[in-house]
Model the fold of this input.
Amino acid sequence: MLPTTRMEPKKYRPYEARDIDRIPQLERLSEEDRLAMKAVASVLPFRVNNYVVEELIRWENVPDDPMYQLTFPQRDMLDPRDLDRLMDLIRSEAPPEKLRAAVGEIRKRLNPHPAGQMDLNVPTQRGEPLPGMQHKYRETVLFFPSQGQTCHAYCTYCFRWAQFVGEDDMKFASREADQLVAYLKAHPEVSNVLFTGGDPGIMRTRVLRSYIEPLLSPELEHLTSIRIGTKAPAYWPYRFLTDRDADDLLALFEEVRESGRHLALMAHFTHPRELETPAAEAAVRRIVDTGAVVRCQSPVIRHVNDDAEAWARMWRMQVALGAVPYYMFVERDTGAQNYFELSLAEAYEIFINAYRGVSGLARTVRGPSMSANPGKVVVDGITRIHGEKVFALRMLQGRNPDWVGRPFFARFDPNAVWYDDLRPAFGEREFFFEEELREFEEDKKFEILGPANLRDRRALPHRSSRRSHGTAVQRETFDPMRNSPFDY
Ligand SMILES: *Cc1c(COP(=O)(O)O)cnc(C)c1O
Done:
């Protein structure tokens, strides 16, 4: 058993769009600015909590404060015409259905379903799609517990308006857990399960336990690692300190360890500030003391962490606390992207300047990485080969494991912000994996056997084995792609 913590408890209090007039710290804004905030919050997700407001944001630096930019809606996140229209509607107290229609129309233009990968990654069991899971890379299954589809606070760049606010419905949990176990039993190639969301850290420990304990069964010997993706250490560290079930959560982490498995908390830290508070530091230390490994990842975001020194400082702090820098992501093409986006060249410069400023212990981090359709593509460098300026690229993960690690090159383009903007260098027609990628796409929705089966699948008479079940693989209440903080 871990020693109990000496932190002062804090009671979680969320603030959402309807609470904007009740956040005392916002009284410093003009009426007009608060109105603009409400307008943006009607389109983009907004939730903060008393910890974010009281301990993370430095109000004397608002509006430039990175934590404020990360969590509070900013007027420039919307097109000025859209903003004006919404502000007029709110100011004139227009009927709710009019506001709703305007919001719906604006949201649709913000590319809510980037590069429809969902249907490519949903696994099946006996011909039935399993919509709470994704299996894209051989080793790792992503699992979206239905109770973990919200967060302690929302990042403004994460575009999720169809929040499925979880309920502690134990029946639902055990049915999903059964499906996960059955899938894993049928897939010995899977060594990792990654709980993601939303934020699985939002779940009460007894709910999380009902998902995790079945995975500790000796029948699932091939499952060696359990990962939990979460921003709770950054947005609500009391989850690991003084919440009623905090000690039980840490006991659960120890149980995973005692079963002989690796437990990785994939912690989302966006800015060093999130590690500087006494609560955050104590939370990370407590988690590490259970034997879990805290691996840290975040996208690079304009106005928030577009600063090499901030990244270097964050990585150093992570190492000092016993955590492991893991990924720097490139934010993808959805939501208020114009506001947040950086070019790939800028992202690379930030990465490499930060990387050069830390010791080898922090260079476990990889990036800047794009979770694109073929795989996780990292920008390794910008260089010149036989006179042509190019991006040197590499796949860190691939739909086909054979693609991983193979260097490839795209023409340098200072304006490219995402993988889709890249064109092969040296006059090539396409990247080396594209032909095979088309084969994946042709077969999607029919024989989703996971990437591990690519070669077997080619040998199969798969055209005749296609099943005629529908192609709609959405769970009624939420769509994991929309809810995912990391844009898989
Ligand atoms: C990133 C990612 C994983 C995990 O990849 P690792 O490199 O092992 O951390 C698994 N599935 C998807 C879809 C991912 O994007």
Residues 134, 136-137, 140, 142, 194, 371, 376, 396-397, 488 surround pyridoxal-5'-phosphate (CB under 6 Å).
